[in-house]
Design goal:
The chain is an alpha/beta fold. It has 11 helices and 15 strands. The chain has a 6-stranded parallel β-sheet with strand order 5-4-1-13-14-15, with helices on both faces. Strands 7-6-8-9-12 form a 5-stranded parallel β-sheet, with helices on both faces. A two-stranded antiparallel sheet has the order 2-3. Bound molecules: magnesium ion. Magnesium ion (MG) binds next to loops. Magnesium ion binds next to loops.
């Protein structure tokens, strides 16, 4: 493995914080157990950061489960990740609603989507629950979606609620090929009915990055000294490009080096690595 460019290694060493993607970056899904398997270097990297007092967050873009469930799965795979160090788009959304003073939110989604909002003290209105004065509609993973849920959400929007979403990506990688992103489809229906485009609060939005920094007690200006590590150019590398963070692409997930190099400038990585070990080496 060739040595890192010294300027890149220096930014890794001097970093204020790290944000990691989960699947394809720190772990791979383990079909046999339904859990996760740590990728080489992942456990070492997190313990190295801990010994250096460099804060980090693990940010996965799914809302099927609450963050604490993902954190427990990562610990089971041997990674030292506390519940509060795990983020989903709902963690980011909850922090954003609090920042904006939004207190009553209709959530189109179940426990995985709702839990971080409830923990943050936001009043969560269930999908087809009768309610008035809803300030925001928030959509996430929601396979149980029905037409009455759409009707209630549209009524809120016609009454002035804003539309927000965990993710607006049409497909995600799943066992056996691509699967439909539930919130993308629901957002399209809400837009067709109300003309309102959902504001993305998960990756790759700057809201997501700013929430992650705020949860580490860091200002927005810390983005430029943050390292974002991931396997998806459209999510992690895009978030890095827009914010000035160091975008570190790893080829242990969805994409190989040629895929990363073929991306648009807005999704280019600062460095492409075959795994996490060179980061551990730079920090050791
Ligand atoms: Mg990934």
């Amino acid at each position: 493995m060739p040595d890192l460019d010294p300027a890149i290694a220096r930014r890794m060493i001097d970093a204020t914080a790290y944000i990691f993607d989960m699947d394809g970056t720190l772990v791979l899904g383990d079909a046999a157990s339904g859990g996760h398997k740590a990728l080489p270097g992942a456990a070492d990297l997190l313990s190295t950061l801990r010994s250096r007092y460099t804060p980090f967050r693990v940010f996965t873009n799914g809302t099927a489960k609450p963050p604490s469930v993902y954190a427990a799965s990562l610990r089971h795979a041997g990674l030292d990740v506390a519940d509060h160090e795990m983020m989903t788009p709902s963690t980011s959304a909850a922090a954003w609603f609090v920042r904006k003073g939004i207190k009553r939110v209709r959530v189109l989604g179940l426990d995985g989507v709702q839990a971080p909002l409830i923990e943050a003290g936001i009043e969560v209105v269930g999908p087809s629950e009768m309610a008035s004065n809803v300030e925001a509609v928030y959509t996430g993973w929601f396979r149980e979606f029905t037409l009455p849920d759409l009707e209630m959400a549209c009524r809120d929007v016609w009454d002035g609620a804003i539309v927000t979403t965990a993710s607006n990506v049409p497909f995600f990688a799943a066992l056996g090929g691509r699967a439909i992103g539930a919130s993308f489809a629901i957002n399209a229906m809400i837009r067709a009915m109300t003309g309102k485009q959902a504001k993305v609060l998960g990756k790759p939005s700057q809201n997501a990055l700013h929430s992650g920094l705020a949860l580490m007690n860091l200002p927005r200006s810390a983005a430029r000294s943050t390292v974002i590590v991931g396997d998806d150019p459209a999510l992690e590398m895009r978030m890095a490009r827009v914010s000035g963070a160091l975008g570190v692409a790893v080829t242990t997930g969805l994409n190989n080096a040629a895929d990363f190099l073929a991306c648009a400038p807005s999704q280019q990585a600062d460095v492409i690595l075959s795994g996490l070990e060179p980061i551990v080496k730079a920090l050791s």
